[in-house]
Amino acid sequence: MVFTGRLKKMAFENVGDEFRIKPNYKIELANSSINFNALLGHKIEIKFLGRITCSACGKTTRKSYGQGYCYPCFISVPETEECVLRPELCRAHEGIARDIEYAKTHCLINHYVYLAQSGGLKVGVTRYHQIPTRWVDQGANRAIIVAETANRFTAGQLEVALKESFADKTNWRNMLMGISDNVNLIEKKQLALEIVNNKGYNFTVPTNSEYSITYPVELYPKKVTSINLDKTNEIEGVLAGIKGQYLLFSDGRVLNIRTHTGYEVAIKSTI
Hints:
Elements: E1 2-6, E2 11-14, E3 20-21, E4 23-29, E5 32-35, E6 43-52, H1 71-74, H2 100-106, E7 111-117, E8 121-127, H3 133-137, E9 142-149, H4 152-162, H5 172-176, H6 185-196, E10 210-213, E11 225-227, E12 234-243, E13 246-249, E14 253-256, E15 263-269
Parallel strand pairs: 3-10, 11-14
Antiparallel strand pairs: 1-15, 2-4, 4-5, 6-12, 6-15, 7-8, 7-9, 9-10, 12-13, 13-14
């Protein structure tokens, strides 16, 4: 069967529970929804049809910026504002934003500062309603919430303070190879709180609830080779796993679906 349409990041249904998360992935193309968990162990083909469409304005673009935008939209839409990657630069609490109405629902709401094991322990920030989506998207195996703040800026301040002791980037190669240290998350949370307590930051501390995520992976690669549709417009192979926003093929190649947002493709499977 062949499905065609524009790619966007993989969605998932949690078939586990609140604290033991098991994502069932799907890719939605036009009016079709493909259950990718069901394709594990089977050959799939993904062919780039030569057109990229901006997620914001819908126009055709020669290159995708910021995971799915043409350049004019990339430098103007609120979804790509500087504070998306650097929350400490958010100014929505001062009434300053590309779109203040957007900021009211994305920046001026409760945020979590968390620690997650994602190829190594890292600190991160996310909106309260993005749990567990944020952790699944970055391929985290385990996570714990360190602090809750009233807005994105304060969460960013905490993250900056914790960057001196914790990494803030995902080691994507280790993540895709299934490499993860078995650290005590509660102890690491207490260490993080010792760093930021009594420093003038305004936050509350949630309970010590740990989250675990089990991904549909039959075989982790010993070495990963990143591929993309710009260099190879037709990719085929046996699907060995799905983790984060990556498809893992049995030969060690990996494809990041989210970075191809807006790409028009045809997907063919053997089932």
